[in-house]
C-alpha cells in the first residue's frame, strides 16, 4: 500500500457557486456529470461516500454509472482494497488529469460569458 497524504474533505457546497455550476457551464466532457467528478478527484483519491457530499444532487445510481463510464474511458481508476469492510477508491489517471486544464479554461470562459448565456437562454424560452 502506498503511503500518501489524505486530501482534505470535500465541502458539501463545492458546486454551490454560480460561476461554474454544472447547469451554468454549457460544455460537457464525457457525460453530464464527468466535469464535476473530475473536479472532486483533482486533489487525490476519494471514496464513493466522499464524492456524495458535494454531489448530493446526483443519485447514487447515476454517480455509479458516471464513475463506471469514466473508468471505461480511462479517466479514472477504481481500486478495491481487500479489507473488512471493503474499501474502494477512485483516482484520476494521467488522461483524466489532462482534462483539468481544459476544465479550468471552460470555467473561466463561463465566468466571463455567463450573463450572455443566461440572456440567450431567456430569449430562447421567450420564443
Automatic annotation (TrEMBL):
Segments forming domain HTH hxlR-type: 20-118
Keywords (alphabetical) are:
DNA-binding, Transcription, Transcription regulation
Cited Gene3D superfamilies: Winged helix-like DNA-binding domain superfamily/Winged helix DNA-binding domain
Q: Which Pfam families does this chain map to? A: HxlR
User: In its UniProt entry, what is this protein called?
Assistant: Helix-turn-helix domain-containing protein
Species this protein is from: Streptomyces crystallinus
Q: What is the lineage of its organism?
A: Bacteria, Bacillati, Actinomycetota, Actinomycetes, Kitasatosporales
Amino acid at each position: 500500500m502506498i503511503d500518501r497524504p489524505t486530501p482534505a474533505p470535500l465541502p458539501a457546497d463545492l458546486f454551490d457557486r454560480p460561476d461554474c455550476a454544472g447547469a451554468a457551464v454549457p460544455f460537457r466532457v464525457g457525460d453530464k456529470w464527468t466535469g464535476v467528478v473530475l473536479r472532486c478527484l483533482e486533489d487525490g483519491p476519494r471514496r464513493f461516500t466522499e464524492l456524495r457530499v458535494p454531489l448530493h444532487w446526483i443519485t447514487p445510481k447515476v454517480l455509479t454509472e458516471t464513475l463506471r463510464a469514466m473508468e471505461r474511458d480511462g479517466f479514472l481508476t477504481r481500486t478495491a482494497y481487500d479489507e473488512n469492510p471493503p474499501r474502494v477508491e477512485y483516482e484520476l489517471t494521467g488522461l483524466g488529469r489532462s482534462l483539468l486544464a481544459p476544465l479550468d479554461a471552460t470555467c473561466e470562459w463561463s465566468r466571463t460569458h455567463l450573463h450572455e448565456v443566461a440572456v440567450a437562454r431567456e430569449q430562447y424560452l421567450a420564443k
